[in-house]
Amino acid sequence: MERRRSISCIKANTAKSLEAIALDIKSVTKAIRQLIKSDERLKELDTWIGSVVGVGAVTTPAVIVVTNEFTNGFSAKQMCSFCGVAPFTHQSGSSLNGKNRVSHKANKYLKTLLNMCAMSAIQTNSDLGRFYHRKLSEGKNKMSALNAVRNKIIHRIFAVVAGERKYERKLSLPAS
Asked: What does the alpha-carbon distance between residue 45 and residue 36 come to, in Å, rounded to a whole number?
């Protein structure tokens, strides 16, 4: 009986802590949104990055911060490597000893955000969704195909920022 009381006491204290954390997250998110709206450059970056399929309001500020508003000299390939989505060959000397692998020395937070972006993008009928399903039909592993989608998302983010415009979804028409 004593154990049940202590468990319910712990649950009550934990619930209060979780509510406080949720309120803190909400206020920080609101402050980030206000900061983005108040600065012209951040507003442009937010618009451009947010136009990429799958990228949302949480990922956009994270990418802006990591790239220091795209002034730190990262290329798209370097960003893919930094986020742990660039495949590297597994080799020893002159012989190849296995499949391509991604580095585990990655920014896990950004990789998680990109994973959520990719999961969102593949559920749509966008070109990324079709790309993912095409990779699966070619016999690729699901995680390998998802990683390829993450890689494409990063390249698209860098392309829209370099082009200083929103992402344009172009429909590919079949050849006649």
From this structure: 9
Angle of the 142-163 helix axis to the 108-122 helix axis, nearest 10: 100
Does residue 41 carry a pLDDT above 80?
Answer: yes
| Contact residues for 107 (Cβ-Cβ < 8 A; gap 6+) | 66, 82, 83, 84
Q: For the residues 156-173, what does the mean pLDDT come to? A: 84
The set of residues, in sequence order, having a beta carbon less than 8 Å from that of 49 and lying 6+ positions away, is: 55, 59, 60, 63, 64, 157, 160, 161
- Asked if 147 contacts 102 with a C-beta cutoff of 8 angstroms, the reply is yes
What are the angstrom distances between the C-alpha of 144 and each of 85, 109, 149?
9, 19, 9
pLDDT at 46 over 80: yes
pLDDT at site 176: 46
Closest by alpha carbon to 72, among 84, 63, 81? 63
**pTM for the structure as a whole:** 0.79
Amino acid identity for residue 55 in this structure: V
Closest alpha carbon to 114 in 51, 63, 166, 168: 63
- Spatial contact of 70 and 45, defined as CB atoms under 8 Å apart: yes
Helix axes 108-122, 59-66, angle to 10 degrees: 140
Cβ–Cβ < 8 Å for 149, 55: no
